[in-house]
């Protein structure tokens, strides 16, 4: 048995000259096509019959608008059962509502690992990882004839050996007469190149957990295991490129023996093999090839650059506390698969003190307009806006009730009683009903963000997160602290009521990184080496006590594993802090200094906050993180125009990107389209600027870098440029520190 003609199924590419859709939309479009197809080709069908395999009634889906239209106009679809696994189920949940899946003909979504009953008249669609475990279950489903027809869609490219295993298992378990009948029921087997999760519109995660720990400590892995890990990362990046639909130029650090460099070379080889394969759909996907032997500035600008970097290029951004709304929701509530569990205080029916309950909320970056509006902003801005959102909503609902003659309250919208009121009024138009459902969704979103804001406020007041964030920012930008500031810093370590042990360890790591980077500057540290050692020993003792573990007798053995690992790295050569922003850091810290004793009104509560005036995503000041400086140096190799005028505090002047030049000449560029015909196809620098970049960080990503890159693209003379950001996984500060701890403990 072999795959059908379209074993590799690239997304439908659009010929529109307008800006390409977000990565999330592109993935959504491809899955919509997957579920919309009515396959009737058999396993042995000819490879030349590709056009006959798509349902004639399926519309062309090339944009978000056509996607929305298609979801409710595919009336001729065959209803089907969708089988997912632990990887693909959350992938779908992030980009589709159940109602949207039903509109695509999906009547039931089941897990491949659960016991499933016979539905012999149903078509089943498998959307799963190509693993031995899944293939074994799939083979048994076919042998047992659980379903009528089988469409098999692997989320990434499948090894031939797995397909041979599938075929052999079926053939060995059935008689010759039955074999042909079963094979006829398998209508397609495809690789869909979708092995990535979209966290936000242009933020993807490969959902490969603890990769920094696994790869940065190679003696824990055999050579084969290490190759498999890096291959999984490379396969995920190939999927992102395929969904994007344009062959990129690959950029990676010269001469570095790092995970990012190894992965870059693997991606180049895989993309080159795909481009030179016999698969017609893939070659059409990557049409518009640069003529061999030429590489003009104009042709490069039309193609994205895939930039690969290692997490060690900037450790501080993964450790420091957050202050923007989106990043705080993730960091405080440990958001997983866009879901959070939040402690909410609810009134007790007995009239006593409020009772704290845990509520689960699903963050919806596609439909939640409040999330889209609030996500990049500083928490204090969001808190004040959330407090007004409910009043605005109630006014909208009041006008709606007056216009329609209904009497629906906000509580009705939350409780579900609105359904009863709609059923009792048969005269309502479809437009009114749709508006009720829209208002119901809006009310639920308002309620969610109000509770999130209250819970964040509780965490700030209980743990003094504003002070942690402000002092970490000060250390990161190498701003000298006066005595009052130093007292605040010392209190964060000494006062047991401020922060958790994890909070204090994160601050201590920032202090250590500041001490390393200060060796190349004139920065006077606000602490001594002995003070750092004292804090370290105290925190290790406190953590061991909390975990009920044995405490060493010698003080010299009370060292934090996180710092033990960091001391083993050559961090003095890493780009950890913003030393290059010498002319701007005074303005940066002035915001912190001026707000040391200020307060802001949030949800009716006055909160003293050291960080109340720190920038959010909507403030005028822009400070590029090291990753953004790298992206700038590659996308704009000639630098910004120093003569460009701007009224936005010189945001576009080259001084903002002082330090970007340190990357000049350190990255090499490879074109997978030409690598096979030219042998080694590398250049010392790009021959022109890029209009689009896919930026991938090996070892864990975060919302701080994502937001910084979005702000970079909003600078006046950067408009028109686009950046997609991704990583092996999305990590909270605590999760990344836990990986550092495991690496340090492995060295003991």
TrEMBL record:
Region (Disordered): 1-58
Record GO biological process: vesicle-mediated transport
Low complexity biased stretches: 1-53
Database matches in SUPFAM superfamilies: Sec1/munc18-like (SM) proteins
Domain of life of the source: Eukaryota
Listed PANTHER family: VESICLE PROTEIN SORTING-ASSOCIATED
Family the UniProt entry places it in: Belongs to the STXBP/unc-18/SEC1 family.
Name used for this protein in its record: Sec1-like protein
